[in-house]
Every structure is written in C-alpha cells, then in structure tokens.
C-alpha cells in the first residue's frame, strides 16, 4: 500500500506543472475568445483565418517555452531520485542476512578481492576466540583499501566482479535492483537522462552509477563472511560489526557523487543565465 501511495504521489508531483500549464492555457484561450469575438465579427473570412493562424503561432511559441521550462525542472529532480535509490540500497545492505553461505562462493569472493580466507577458516576451525578475533580483524582491515575513494579506480573492477559473483548466486544487489520500487525510480532517472542538455551532467550520472555499484557490491560482499556460522559463535558482535567503520566512508562518497550531479546541473543553469545576459547586453 505504501509503494502504491508513493507512486501516486510521485505521479502527482510530476504532473502538477502540466496541470497548471493546461489550466493557464485554457484560461488564456477563453479570455482571448471573449475579447476578440466581437472584433472578429467585423472581419471577412480571410482576415479571420489570418488572425487564427497568428494566434496558433503564438500558442505554439508559448508551448515551446513551457516544454523547455518543464524539461529543466524535471532534470533538476535527478539528484533527489539518485538519493532515493541510494537509500533503498543502503537499507537493503543494512538489513541483509544470508545464512548457509556456500563455501564455493566465499572462496570465489576471496579470490576476486585478494583476501586471505585460509587464515579465517583456520581460525574458525580452531575455536580459539582470540585467534578468531585477530584473524577476522585483519580480514576486515583489508577491506579498507576498497573503501578509499582515491584508490577506487584501481579496485573497481575487482569489486564489480564480486558483485557479479553474488548476483549469480541470487544474493547480490540485483535482489534490490529488480524490486518494483527501485525500478520505478530508476526508470524515471533513465527517462530524464534522455532530456539532459549537457554531456557533463550525463557523465556525472554515469560516475554515480558505476561507482555506487562497485562500492555497494564491496559492502555487500562482507556480509557472507560475517554470516559464517562458525565465526558467529566465537567472534563478539563488536568485532563482526567492524564494517560499520567502512559504511560512513562509502556513504560520504555517495553523497559527494550526488552533489557532483547537482553542481553540474546548477553550473549548466548558471552558464545559460550568463549567455542570456550577454545576449541582452548586445
């Protein structure tokens, strides 16, 4: 019920300007008809036709201005939509639970991410809490290099491979990306991207999607290792929750990427204003 209400509200938000434009147009037409009706009665057929052609042309010009305004207004919503996608993915990761992790998947993830899973398994088999804590702490620390935005380009391919492996096992980001709510918002972003007036804006949006996929795949890939039954029994929750240090770093980077999209839109608007002002000055 909540999703349906949110979808209805989004539809209303998207069409409010259209409704206002239609009402305003009808009002203008009604006023014109009232004021020129008597005047038209004194004209011959050719003159009446010429007047209507002129009115239609004016109407089309006004329509183009309305469409341009709507396009610019719609594009400005993209950062807000990206933030909502971000929220959906983060909630999915935070509430993620995957018991009975296939050992083959763990081995594949460790190989792709260059992690020493042998030490982790040995510590789990030993049953020694201190040894397990130390091994798991070192294991988590290796994830820090993946959360560093400055080194993201070097690690991005590995993180995306990890995401692909989890998707193949039906436990990856596809589980949230294929939901109705995510797809509804994503399709709106996709539709708005076709209206983008600037290549820079498009580039910033691409950066957001590519980097968010990689970083969120990295965050999600920690979960299977945390859910190892043998480790859950011997490692304190405070140690298993060590990835919470990485999460704020990733969230901050996502905020930066969304802000970059917003700034590129504002820069485009500012350049448009400056161009218009220079044209008037001439």
Give a brief description.
The protein has helices at residues 2-41, 45-75, 78-94, 103-112, 117-126, 129-141, 144-147, 152-168, 174-177, 180-193, 199-226, 229-232, 237-240, 246-281. The chain is an all-alpha fold and 282 residues long.
Overview of the structural elements:
- The chain has 282 residues and is an all-alpha fold.
- The protein contains 14 helices and no strands.
- The protein folds into two domains: 2-75, no CATH class; 78-274, no CATH class.
- The termini are far apart.
* Helicity range: over 70%
Q: Taking all residues together, what is the mean pLDDT?
A: 77
Largest sheet: none
Structural class by sheet pairing and helices: mainly alpha
Straight-line distance between termini: 57 Å
Strand portion: under 5%
- The total number of structural domains is 2
Q: What is the radius of gyration computed over CA atoms, rounded to a whole number of angstroms?
A: 28 Å
Count of beta strands: 0
Helix-strand sequence: HHHHHHHHHHHHHH
Low-confidence stretches: none
Number of H- or I-type helical stretches? 14
Overall geometric form: elongated
